[in-house]
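WARN no homologs supplied; continuing
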Amino acid sequence: MVAAAPLGSVALDPGVTLAAVFDGPRLLDPETGEVLAALGDDGTWRTAEGVESIGLVVPVQRCTAGTTAQAREEFARIADASWQLEAIEAVRRLARELCDFTTDEVWERLEHPPREPRLFGPLMRACERDGIIERTDEFRPSTRQINHGRRQQIWRSRLLTAPRLFATDEAA
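OK structure emitted
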C-alpha cells in the first residue's frame, strides 16, 4: 500500500520512507531532488529520459522471520504438549463410553489434529501409563481413507469394567 504524506509534514513514522515528492506536474526523488517523472501536456507521465511511464516502481524490502531453530523446536514442543493434553481428554472420554477402540475413533473426537500423525504413538502410550487404556493383541482395519485400510491396534478401556447395555440418565 502506498500512502500520501500530508502537506507540510516533516517527520515520518519510523520504518516509513518518502518514495517521491510531488512538485506540480513533476515527481522528484526525495533525496536528490532529481525529476523521476513529469506529467506532459497530453496527460501522459514520462521519465526524465522522455520514456512513457504508467507507474512508479518502489523496491520493497521483504522481511523474514528472525526465529532460530531452537525457538522453532521450543514452539513445536509446547504445541505438541498442548495437543497431547487435549488428546488425552479425548481418549479419556472414549474410554468412558467404549470398551475398545482404535486411534480412528480418537481422530474423530479431536478438536485439533496433531502437528504430525506420529504423535499418536506417544499419546496412546501415555494413556496406557496413566491407566486409561490397555493394549490388546487385536487389530482392525482403519476406517480413515488416508490409512488405506491399514491394521490399527485395538485399545481396551480400563475405565469401563463391563459393556454398557443400556444408556443411563446420570442426572436422576
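The mean pLDDT is 83.
OK
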